[in-house]
Amino acid sequence: MKYISTRGGGERLSSAEAIIQGLSANGGLFVPEELPAVDAAFIQGLVSLSYEERAVAVLQQFLTDYTEEELCGCVTRAYGMGKFDTERKAPTKMFDDCSVLELWHGPTSAFKDMALQLLPQLLQTALAKTGETADVLILVATSGDTGKAALEGFRDVAQTKIMVFYPQGGVSRIQGLQMLTQEGGNVNVTAVRGNFDDAQSGVKRIFSDAAFGEELASHGVKLSSANSINWGRLVPQIVYYFSAYADLLAAGRIAYGDEVNFCVPTGNFGDILAGYYAKRMGLPVGRLICASNRNNVLTEFLRTGTYNRKREFFKTITPSMDILISSNLERLLYHAVGNAEQVAAWMRQLAEQGSYTISKELLANIQKTFWADWADDEATKATIRKAYETKHYIPDTHTAVAWCVAENYQKQTADRREMVVVSTASPYKFNGSVLTALGVSTDGMDEFSMLDKLQELNDNPIPRGLASLRDKAVRHHDVCARDEMKNFVAAFAKQ
């Protein structure tokens, strides 16, 4: 299987080459030239398998230049060795009226671990397969969770360095501590004066700067990405949609062929896009419900067909979704319209004018699969309270946005197909907001007092990676302006 750019051009890369390169030379994202299809026997065969075995089966459909032995090794190193706190890496918690797909049992307590424990293994294998001798510098822009998950995944991985940019003051206190205390000889964490879109746009500019790439190459360094713009970051996420469906089959919750709706808290559009790929492959997915916070640019787009980033930016209690430029939407547009020149034109309009509009026909086609709504902070907190009071279950703030939107969808459509709420983070990562939602005063409490207080209410213990922050020293202090990011990258690359 070959990979091509959403914006056209002549590149046709193997999956290993696409994973090393990260972003195409013309700024587009790599997508499979054609999408694989699976049958009923494949899906039903997943029921008796472990998560690791399910992962290999799904990854084989896309990473066709990796051998089965290589994929098994990558998956074992990613998900083994006690890194996850549950035997089933992505368990599905089932309630009477919905199910919750818990994706936060990895080392950094966020769904990003599902991909970012695996991506370094895929990349290291790709470097060996292609004979690449340069060091790979991973650049990451994070709204909170990706940064720590990427740092932990790439920590001390041979032939790699990783540099994470995050918006100063734009992540939760726990998220900040997780990154700033990161250990490892190949890591750097730098705050950017601005918001996530400033950090992400800066990283994209660095990737598309050919002269800078040549300068780094002269020092034996090439750039790649651990954001979901990298195909190697996105493809592991397809696995857990198949795994959730297999879990529902195993529990007798559904019969094979029954369609399942997934409601996904959405910022950069990668998580929900993985569900779209699963559906296109043949998994019986009904609607993919895109749940946003007050930064509801995606809700507006999926309702009207106009994507407009020229709007007020809000800081919310769901910081990982405080995003106005959703990179992975470009992949959906490519698959929906099938015209790379048109996609490139829309992306130019977005960069130069701040907005673009798709045709009514294309929007109607997209709406057959996607439905969108949003929840503000008050609705989010009310949903956390309701989940605790009615189910004795405590979701994090992002999961609560999805839960709220899922309930709105069911009320507005009367669709009674099985609903899976995709849970993207442990409530302990957003302890202050969660405690406030539960009516607990946090006055005078530090982060660790809040962790302890939340544990008193929660059936799940404090995750190891968060509990250990109490004793860790802050190691990273760099702060830069948006226009200084390239200089900081150059300095780190040459260390």
TrEMBL record:
Its cofactor is pyridoxal 5'-phosphate. Pfam families: PALP, THR4_C, Thr_synth_N. GO terms for cellular component: cytoplasm. CDD domains: Thr-synth_2. Residues 2-79 form the Threonine synthase N-terminal domain. Residues 104-353 form the Tryptophan synthase beta chain-like PALP domain. Keywords: Lyase, Pyridoxal phosphate. It comes from the Bacteria. Its EC number is 4.2.3.1. SUPFAM superfamilies: Tryptophan synthase beta subunit-like PLP-dependent enzymes. One of its GO terms (molecular function) is threonine synthase activity. The modification N6-(pyridoxal phosphate)lysine is found at residue 112. GO terms for biological process: threonine biosynthetic process. PANTHER family: THREONINE SYNTHASE-LIKE 1. Belongs to the threonine synthase family. NCBIfam families: thrC. This is Threonine synthase. It comes from Selenomonas bovis.
